[in-house]
Amino acid sequence: GDDADDRDADDLSVAVVSDDPAPGSTVTVEVTDADGEPVEGASVEVEGESVGTTDADGRITVTLPTDNDEAEIEVEDGEREGELEIEFADAEDADDADDADDADDGADDDADDEDGDDSDGDDADEDDDEDDDEDDDVEDDDEEDADDEEGDE
C-alpha cells in the first residue's frame, strides 16, 4: 500500500487552462502537484518532443499537433511526473459543421445554375427554331409563285 501512496504523492496534475484545445492550436497548460500547488521548472513534452519547462505559475504554452485526433502531454519534475491526453472532440464537430455548410452551398449553387440554364437556354433555342421555320416557308412560297407565273405566260 505504501508504494501506491508514494506514487500518488509524486503524481503531477496537468490541465489545459486556456481555450478548448483544437488541432494546431496554442494552449496554456498548468502543472500542479498533489497539493494543487503550481510546479515550476517541470520539463514538458508534447508527443514526445520537449517543448520547455513550466514557469513560476506552473504554466507553459504549447502548440498542439495538427495531424492527430489527440495529443499527449507529459510532464516530469525530478521523480514526479504526470501526463495529459487531449482528445480533440471538437475536431469531429468542426468537420460536421463544414460538411453541413458544403451541403447547403452545393444545393444553392445547383439550383441557381439549373434555373439559369433552363430559362435562358431552352427558350432561346425554341424561338430560333420557330423563326427559321417561318423564314423557310416564306421563301418556298415566293419561289413557287414565281414558277407559277412563268408557267402561265
From TrEMBL:
<dbReference type="InterPro" id="IPR040839">
    <property type="entry name" value="MG4"/>
</dbReference>
<protein>
    <recommendedName>
        <fullName>Macroglobulin domain-containing protein</fullName>
    </recommendedName>
</protein>
<feature type="domain" description="Macroglobulin">
    <location>
        <begin position="27"/>
        <end position="76"/>
    </location>
</feature>
<feature type="compositionally biased region" description="Low complexity">
    <location>
        <begin position="39"/>
        <end position="52"/>
    </location>
</feature>
<feature type="compositionally biased region" description="Acidic residues">
    <location>
        <begin position="67"/>
        <end position="153"/>
    </location>
</feature>
<feature type="region of interest" description="Disordered">
    <location>
        <begin position="1"/>
        <end position="153"/>
    </location>
</feature>
<feature type="compositionally biased region" description="Acidic residues">
    <location>
        <begin position="1"/>
        <end position="11"/>
    </location>
</feature>
<dbReference type="InterPro" id="IPR013783">
    <property type="entry name" value="Ig-like_fold"/>
</dbReference>
<dbReference type="Pfam" id="PF17789">
    <property type="entry name" value="MG4"/>
</dbReference>
<dbReference type="InterPro" id="IPR008964">
    <property type="entry name" value="Invasin/intimin_cell_adhesion"/>
</dbReference>
